[in-house]
Amino acid sequence: MLQSSPTVRALFAVPDYRRLWTIGALVGVVRWLEFLALGVFAYQVTQSPTYVALIALVRMAPWIVLGFLIGALADYFDKQRMLAAGFLVSGVAFAAMAVLSAFGLAGYGTAICAALVSGLLWTTDLPVRRRLLVEAAGVHRMTAALGFDNSSYFAARAIGPILGGVAYQLLGIEGIFALSAAVYLACFYLSVGLTDVEPSPTDRAHVGNPRPSVLSLLIPPRELILSRRFQVVVGVTIVFNVWCFPFLSMVPVIGEKEFGLTPAQIGALSACEGVGGTIGAILIGLLAGQRPYFPFYYFGVMGFLALMLGVSVSLTLGTTIVGLLLIGASASGFSAVQYALIYTMAPPDMRGRAAGFLSIFIGTSTLGFYNTGWVFSRFETADAMMIIALEGFIPLLILGLLWMRAKS
C-alpha cells in the first residue's frame, strides 16, 4: 500500500482507476452507514436481536442467489454498463424510500427493502468493479491497486458507522435513505464516465460468441470445482462469513444493551473495527508484494476468532474497543488479499465466474447472521461470543491441515 511515490502517482494518474477507487470509497462509506443505521432502526422498532440479524441476512442473500450469475455475466458482457445500471437502479430505489419515509410510512419492511437493494448492488463489487479496477491499473500494479482500494474500504468502515449514527440521530431514517440515494447517483455519474478500460482476455475471447449458453451462466467450470486450493479458499471464506463477519451486526446490540450507548456513540464503537482494518490493510499492502497471499487470508480469520474469544472473557467497554480495533486489523488480512487470490488462481477466461462462485459462499453469511441472532437471543452477550468463536475454530483448523496437504 505505501508504495514508492512514483507508483502512487502512476496509479492515480489513470483516470479510470481514480474513478473506480472513488466509487469504492463512496459506496463503502454509505454501505456501512446503512449497516449501522438500519441495525439501530430495526432494534428500536422491534427490540429483537433476531430481527436485527435478519436485516443483515437479507442484505447478503443476493450473494447466494445471484453471485455466480453476475460473475458469469461479467465474463461475457460489458462490465462498465453492468456497474452503471446497478448504481442507477439503487439510486432511484433509495430516493423512493426516502420519500416514503418523509411521509411517515417507513417501518421494518422498509428497512428490509433497503437491505435487499443494497445487497443486490454489493454483489457486483467483486466480479465487476474490482476487476475493472485491476484492468485499469494493470496487472503489474495489482497489489498496489487493490491495496489502496482495501485501505479505503476499511476507512469507509470507520467513517460510515460514525456518519450513520450521527445522521440517524439528527435526520432519522429518511436522512439515511436520502444520503444513500445521493451517493449511488453520484457513483452512476462516475461509472458512465469510464473511458479507457482495456478489454480483458476473456472479453476478447468471447467477441465471436456474444451469447453465452445457459449452462455457462449457471454451472461453475469443472476446473474450479476440482482445484483443491480453490476449495480451501472457499472453505476459509465460509468460516469468515458464517462465524466472523455476522458478529459485527451485533455491535449496535452490544453497545445499547451492555453499555447503554447513544446511536452516535454506537457509531463510534463500530468505527473502531474500521480504524483497525485501515491500519491493517496498509501493513498488508507493504508485505503482500513479497509474500504468498494465503497466510494473510487464513491467519486473518484465525486472529478474528481468537480476539472475539478473548473479549468474551472480560466484556467491558474498554476491552470491546481494543478488541474491535484488533479484529479490524485481523479482518484486513482476509479481505485485502481476497480478490488477488482469485485473480491469480483462476484462468483469465474464468475470473468472473471464479469471483462469482466465491460470492455464493460469501453469501453463507446469511446462515451466520441467523446463527448469530439466535445465539445472542438465547445467551448472555459474553457467552454468545465465546460459543460463536469456538464454533468457527473447528472447521478453520481442519482447513489449515487440508491446505498443507494440498501444498505437499
Model description:
- The protein is mainly alpha-helical and 408 residues long.
- The protein has one domain: MFS general substrate transporter like domains (Growth Hormone, Chain: A).
- 83% of the residues lie in helices and 0% in strands.
- The chain is built from 19 helices and no strands.
CATH architecture title? Up-down Bundle
| Tally of separate domains | 1
The whole-number mean of residue pLDDT values reads 84
**If you consult CATH, what is the topology?**
Growth Hormone, Chain: A
Gyration radius (Cα, Å) is 20 Å
Sheet with the most strands?
A: none
The assigned structural class equals mainly alpha
Shape: globular
Topology order in helix (H) and strand (E) letters = HHHHHHHHHHHHHHHHHHH
Question: By CATH's scheme, which homologous superfamily applies?
Answer: MFS general substrate transporter like domains
State the helical fraction.
Answer: over 70%
Total strand segments:
0
CATH C-level category:
Mainly Alpha
Euclidean distance between termini CA atoms: 31 Å
Number of helices: 19
Low-pLDDT runs of 5+ residues are none
Strand content: under 5%
What are its keywords?
single chain; 408 residues; mainly alpha; Growth Hormone, Chain: A; 19 helices; 83% helix; globular
Write the layout of secondary structure elements.
Layout: H1 5-12, H2 15-46, H3 49-76, H4 79-102, H5 108-122, H6 125-137, H7 142-192, H8 201-205, H9 214-218, H10 222-225, H11 228-244, H12 251-259, H13 263-288, H14 294-313, H15 317-336, H16 338-345, H17 351-362, H18 365-378, H19 381-407
Helix pairs in contact: 2-3, 2-5, 2-6, 2-7, 3-5, 3-17, 3-18, 4-5, 4-6, 4-7, 6-17, 7-13, 7-15, 11-14, 11-18, 11-19, 12-13, 13-15, 14-15, 14-19, 18-19
